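lol ok so funny story. i was supposed to be doing the assay writeup but got distracted and ended up predicting the structure for this chain instead. priorities right. anyway since i did it might as well share w the group, maybe its usefull for someone
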Amino acid sequence: MPMKITILFDNHPGSPLAKPSHGFSALVEFSGGTFLFDTGSSKLVVENAEALGADLGSASHVVLSHGHWDHCNGLKYVAQKNPRLEVIAHPDVQFGKWSDKGDGEEYKGIGKSSLEKIGELRAILSEAPLEFLPNAFFLGEVDRVTDFEAQETLWYTKTSEGKKNDYMLDDTGVAVKTGNGLVVLTGCAHSGVVNIVKHAQKVCGENRVRAVIGGFHLGSASDGHIRKVIMFFRKAGVQELFPCHCTGDAAISMMVKELGAKKVGAGSVIEIEE
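and the output, tada:
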């Protein structure tokens, strides 16, 4: 049986059965088990799963890529469907996150009710990578080795000493090790999609990359930045790309044209031979 990745939540439409909305979530079914990667921003994650016939109750774990509302606020609804879930995330996922683009401060962190669910469910909060299912790796805090990614931030946290720049050290991903290479999932790639893939290769001891799926955080990136990412994917021999969520229309179009990337969205089902 091939690995099956069902995108339950995304900005873009992928099936008439599912409604698009800003955020990301994917249900991953493979030979080692079933897990949920991110939960979107609302109850729509559950509604889309039901419409698609995706069984949230079959998941043993939910991995949170980082602590932003559009990836975590569906957790309270997912937990109502499956209270046996074990949460895996970086410890900083719990900290408040704000932005101010000049028109007033906005809270962008995980909502209170979903944050409470992390406390109620079994949870592993780890900076270190860990293998949470056979051949499925939570990547932990990502080594930032490129000179063009994660160099600036619009986000901040609040401490007793005031505002502090938040470089999103909690931003991470998951890698599933297959016989054909790694399948890497990214939520928003605030830490840099190239950094995440390089880190996955290091953590898993595997240089082959079968696929990269998720948000690549290139919506406001320059053409030069996008081309560096494309150059890396090409050099690394990434076999398939499925950019979505925050990747940005320009970057997606360039990757479709130059790398044969596939457009996906809410309701899309990706099957990959293990």
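The chain has a mean pLDDT of 96. The chain has one domain: 3-272.
back to the writeup now i swear
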